[in-house]
Amino acid sequence: MNKWFSLMQKKALFIAVLFVLIGLDISAQIQDSEPLLPQFEQCMQARLQEKIYLHSDKNFYLAGEICWFKLYCVDGCFHRPLGVSKVAYTELLNDKNQPVMQAKIGLKEGCGSGSFQLPTDLPTGKYKIRSYTNWMKNSSANFFFEKQVIIINGHHFNQRDSSKQQSIYRMQMFPEGGNLVSGMQSKIAFSITDQNKKGISCQGVIIDDKNDTLLQYRTLQFGMGSFDLTPAINRTYRAVTTLVDGQRIVQELPVAFNNGFVMHLAEAGNNMITITVQASGNVYNTLPVYLFAHTRGIVKAAFKNSIQNGIATFSVDRQKLGDGISHFTVFNAGRIPVCERLYFKFPEQRFHIQLTTDRQQYGTREKISMHITSADQTGFGLAANLSMAVYRLDSLQEIDEMNIDNYLWLSSDLTEAIESPQYYFYDNGTGTQQAMDNLMMTKGWRRFRWEDILQNKKPAFNFAPEYLGHIIKGKITDSATGVAAAGVAVYLSSPGMRLQFRTARSDSSGIVHFEMKDFYSNGELIFHPKNQTDSFLNIEILDPFSDKFSDRFLTANTLDQISPRLLMNHHVAAEVQNQYFGNRLNRFQIPLIDTTPFYGKPDVSYLLDNYVRFTTMEEVLREYVAPVTLRTRNGKYELKVLDSQKEHVFFESDPLVLLSGVPVFDFDRIINYDPLKIKKLDIITKTYFYGNMAFDGILNFETYNGHLQGFELDPHSTVIDYQGLQLQREFYSPVYDSQQQTAVRLPDFRNLLYWSPDIKTTPQGEKDVYFYSSDLSGKFAVVLQGLARDGKTGSKVIEIEVKKLLQKNSK
Questions:
Q1: Residue 536 domain boundaries
Q2: Apex CA 711: angle with CA 707 and CA 712, to 5°?
């Protein structure tokens, strides 16, 4: 492994260990300290987990509109804002997992925002927005953030699909704990879905191999349900399910083992949970079994008990568990996992958001004022980082069920998409708890394998966290043979207003890494080998976006139900906005970043406008640039820099000469360059160490706009187009403060009245916002959600109404 990546891996592990040690839950119920506990904690300390939640302004768009989004990057254990990664990769994927838009979004203190200007020729269909960090690419793509959106091209939209989709149903059975064992009662959860993976209501019966009916069952919510069964020895069972349309499907139940373990979880009252473990046969009597519980990698309980008369019972204090999903695992005497199931604790770690408006109803082109209050469970004000969207509701755009609450506490820890996730957060009643329990048993998943933990297998990290900034990764090969070139020193430059110059040396696989802090350049990257003898080499920039995809399923296309008239209204509104306000929709904020060059403050700096503007660069250097000597040898110019650490001694080696950050190896090129295009000359007059390289002085000639302005690059340079971090687009909203502004005759057909990704309440939890209604009447959803520093999540949705007020005609 090369030194660079080894250093980055050590940095990642240090961050992970520090983070986990700080967050260890000292209130866990630890009754036994045998090897399971230290092995698990050691594994978790090496596995810093990141999660990303993306709040988009809405989930329905027309081609040509702007999709706005806010990113929240948190740690996987406590959901606190995490500042490890400085870049998030966000993509819009079509139904074939092909990216149609991609962006690198800068993160600061765990938050960032961006936008996609959807192409006008984007085909109608269902798409996925996904987001992840470089560090998250070490895990399965199933844990990347994903959200489905609908995009319709108003110019090319077929109202109906004449082909009828064939119904395909799938039924799955999930015994509690994992397996059925003959002679022991087990709870069996089941799910039945259609070809769109949507839950289907049904009822059915369980029959044995003698066609005797043993019990009846029916679904509770979203095609899920459960029943109890005690399988007999050497008997098989079938589920015969009848759908609402009368169709029947038959599913074989899992075969029961003659020996093994069965677990059952039950609420015992007084906030206690009882875990009952049954073992078949006397062979297990008096042998120990272990119960291990953790919430997102944080140990919550570790117990040891002996099997007596085939049963071992554990009591777990529910209050000691973390919010969200906890994993209960049962180990036998040999510490081999034999049963596992998931349990959900309704999250208390949420804060309350109140949204109050100044009026109940508004007219068109009127000011809408709102007051935001964020408070903790006790009612005390709480500072929070929020994002808000206000959009018009109709049959095309409804309120999105996904929010930061149900995603972080539920969906993010499950690999399969959840139907109607907000249902489980409406209330905590018995029906909801039973539906949640069925969900935990049918869609459970863990981020690690117990086999790896028990074997002390260390995780392999192929992707380093981008702790300082975006990492540009390239591969250097011999252009003739294609063989990787090791040990090659390479320079990278990105011309522009901010000097970006980096150095790297290829590892044994020809890989080079360049860490680019605050890299917002969206132009050209220039690569050049340090040695001219390396001109036969080829450099390829590796795609930083993941080529791995989740197996989540896009729901079926229901676009045939769209009203053509309503779609036409949306299309006209979008066309009007682009026609009249297109230039105002493409304004971007210039980020406040450190523009200090990589060498810091120069030893000597010349602003050439403060001196006589000579017509040749040779005159400039000879007349007043004292730390540099210019001479010719064999018809070529040579530049040497005065060594400030030695009296009247110039370096023998050539300095690093840059033109706006681009290295110049042939000094004749800089001597022949027009000095009137140079704004400033910075000089370093000592040996400068940069990465694993050293330079005997540096001369950096800066142009007025940071670009090369006609300078001919060295023939050994390689120029590659590359997109840096996305600049943040400014959300445009008209202002109607005066009668004159209100009377402007330009149409205002905004469906999205307001979008703000950066609303921050005060320490007392207060914030005022305002915006203006458009010419469109109807009901509008106000969606506000966000995060507090301690990991508490919050979300709020209200509706406001805008009506066109009748105005009297003046005579």
A1: 470-541
A2: 130
Strand partners, 703: 678
Q: Work out whether the CA dihedral 519, 525, 529, 530 comes out positive or negative.
A: negative
Q: How many domains does the chain have?
A: 3
With respect to residue 39, please indicate whether it lies within any of the assigned structural domains. no
178 and 325 belong to one structural domain: yes
180 belongs to a structural domain: yes
User: Tokens 């999709």 map to which residue?
Assistant: 67
Residue 464 in tokens: 């380093």
SS3 state at 430: helix
Phi and psi angles of residue 405, each rounded to the nearest 5 degrees, phi first: -65, -60
Give a three-class secondary structure readout of 490-532: EEEEECCCCCEEEEEECCCCCEEEEEECCCCCCCEEEEEECCH
The vertex-403 CA angle with 377 and 518, nearest 5°, equals 100
C-alpha 73/C-alpha 48 separation (Å) is 13
Cα-Cα-Cα-Cα torsion 721, 722, 728, 731, nearest 10 degrees, comes to: 50
Shared domain check, 339 and 205 = yes
Please tell me the pTM assigned to this model: 0.91
Asked if residue 694 belongs to a domain, the reply is yes
Contact status, residue 333 vs residue 287, Cβ threshold 8 Å: yes
Mean pLDDT for each 10-residue chunk of the chain (811 residues)? 51 48 50 61 68 96 95 93 95 95 96 95 94 94 93 74 67 92 94 89 94 94 95 94 90 91 92 93 79 88 90 94 92 86 90 93 96 93 97 91 94 88 83 93 66 62 90 92 91 82 93 92 85 75 95 66 82 83 82 86 95 93 93 91 90 93 91 94 95 92 86 86 93 91 90 96 96 95 96 95 68 37
Handedness of CA 647, 649, 654, 659 (dihedral sign): positive
Last residue within a domain, chosen from 541, 572, 589: 541
Rounded distance between C-alpha atoms, residue 469 and residue 578, angstroms: 34
Alpha helices in 700-738 (DSSP H): none
Identify the three-state secondary structure at position 427. coil
Question: Is the domain of 316 the same as that of 184?
Answer: yes
Q: Are residues 617 and 534 in the same domain?
A: no
**Residue 686 maps to which CATH number?**
2.170.130
Dump strand ranges (E) for 611-674. 628-633, 636-641, 656-659, 662-663
Same domain, 536 and 608: no
How far apart, in Å, are the Cα atoms of 703 and each of 150, 230, 624, 675, 678?
Answer: 46, 82, 19, 9, 4
Instruction: Based on DSSP, count helices (H) and strands (E) in the chain, helices before strands.
Output: 10, 47
The domain that holds 321 is classified in CATH as: 2.60.40.1930
